[in-house]
Design brief:
Layout: H1 7-19, H2 28-41, E1 51-58, H3 73-83, H4 88-96, E2 98-106, E3 116-118, H5 136-155, E4 160-166, H6 171-182, H7 198-215, H8 222-229, H9 232-247, E5 250-253, H10 256-268, E6 276-278, H11 285-293, H12 310-314, H13 316-328
Parallel strand pairs: 1-2, 1-4, 2-3, 4-5, 5-6
Helix pairs in contact: 1-2, 2-13, 5-8, 5-9, 6-7, 6-8, 6-10, 6-11, 8-10, 9-10, 10-11
Bound molecules: nicotinate mononucleotide and 5,6-dimethylbenzimidazole.
5,6-dimethylbenzimidazole (DMD) binds next to helix 3.
């Protein structure tokens, strides 16, 4: 169960932000962040000192259709890179003081990688252009992996969890999920992912349309959408969102894949929305549409499209700024006003 935010504490926090030595509202989104964190943590003086990024990894049968600029093997190679501390997200997480947790929920990589939590539900999804990507039970099992991961981190004292992922091909299911759950025209939701050319972009649109025609996912049933046209790492991240919100922990959404996971969780349990913060706006066109569907507004716009949780980790200092301002700024009363 996801609890409502502490409304009385939020009211108290709003009053305090209004008493700080600044014109009311002049710290913009930082004030909204501070007030929402107060509501999440049940204190006017919240903290985001304990931070983690969960990088869910999975492969995709749909790569057989030629929808990515890179081969599936890159997923496993990047898992080794994360474990070695040398990927983009590792560098940024070190800078921001966040721990990196890499979870293999469904890659095709068969070798054990020390430092990667092996929770494989299956070795990649089936090709969603010819049938369902997963069974409902497989999607539920992947969700549970994420939920348990978030529950453990929260129990360990983590106060904010960033959503990271790695999975060659995963912008294809993300656009499919966006199309079904937002009802937006597919043509406006298909992007270049890892950097495909014009012809591949057009092929990718056709592949996704075929996936929707073949699977007929039910927009009223987010689990059906997730199983039929989603991915194992997307399901894992949706589980992280549910588990974090259930534990009262804030979540930083990353790019388009993380947003597809967050939107899936949001449709399963709308109360998770209050725990979500949108970190940045990805180059993928479906990202903006999905964030809007959750009424989230991105903090950063850096023209990024890497994934891994890189954008989410970059936004951690902004959450920290909000917690410091409310704690350290003088009030008008302090000035004798
Ligand atoms: O975060 C994003 O918005 C984002 C946008 C484009 C690509 N990615 C990353 O690139 C991979 C998916 O791209 P693709 O072209 O293989 O579908 C996957 O590993 C993602 O982490 C991530
Ligand atoms: C090299 C590489 C690194 C990534 N990190 C997340 N998605 C990725 C995709 C590629 C291709």
């Amino acid at each position: 169960m996801v609890k409502q935010l502490h409304l009385a504490v939020m009211e108290e926090a709003r009053n305090r932000w209004d008493q700080l030595t600044k014109p009311p509202g002049s710290l913009g989104k930082l004030e909204e962040i501070g007030i929402r964190l107060a509501g999440i943590q049940g204190t006017v003086f919240p903290s985001v000192e304990r931070r983690a990024v969960v990088v869910m990894c999975g492969d995709h049968g749909v790569t057989a259709e030629g929808v990515s600029a890179f081969p599936s093997e890159v997923t496993g190679l990047m898992m080794q890179n994360f474990a070695g501390g040398k990927a983009g997200v590792n560098v940024l997480a070190r800078q921001m003081g966040a721990d990196v947790h890499v979870v293999d929920v469904g890659s095709r990589c068969e070798v054990e990688i020390p430092g990667v939590l092996r929770k494989k539900i299956k070795s990649g999804t089936d090709n969603l252009a010819v049938g369902p990507a997963m069974t409902r039970d497989e999607a539920l099992a992947a969700l549970e992996v994420g939920r348990e991961t978030a529950r453990n981190l929260s129990a360990d004292g983590v106060q904010v969890i960033a959503l990271g992922e790695m999975g060659i091909g995963n912008t294809t299911p993300s656009s499919a999920i966006a199309a079904v759950l937002t009802g937006h025209p597919l043509a406006e939701l298909v992007g270049r992912g890892t950097g495909i050319d014009e012809n591949t972009l057009s092929l990718k649109g056709q592949v996704i349309q075929r996936a929707l025609d073949v699977n007929q996912p039910n927009p009223q049933d987010a689990l059906d959408v997730l199983a039929k046209v989603g991915g194992l790492e997307i399901a894992g991240l949706a589980g992280v969102v549910l588990g974090a919100a259930e534990a009262g922990t804030a979540v930083l959404v990353d790019g388009v894949i993380a947003a597809a996971a967050a939107l899936t969780a949001y449709r399963m349990e709308p109360a998770v929305g209050a725990y979500l913060f949108a970190s940045h706006l990805s180059q993928e066109p479906a990202h903006r549409v999905m964030l809007a569907a959750m009424e989230l507004s991105p903090l950063l716009q850096l023209e990024m499209r890497l994934g891994e949780g890189t954008g989410a980790v970059l936004a951690m200092p902004l959450l920290e700024a909000a917690t410091r301002l409310v704690r350290e700024m003088a009030t008008f009363a302090d000035l004798g006003l």
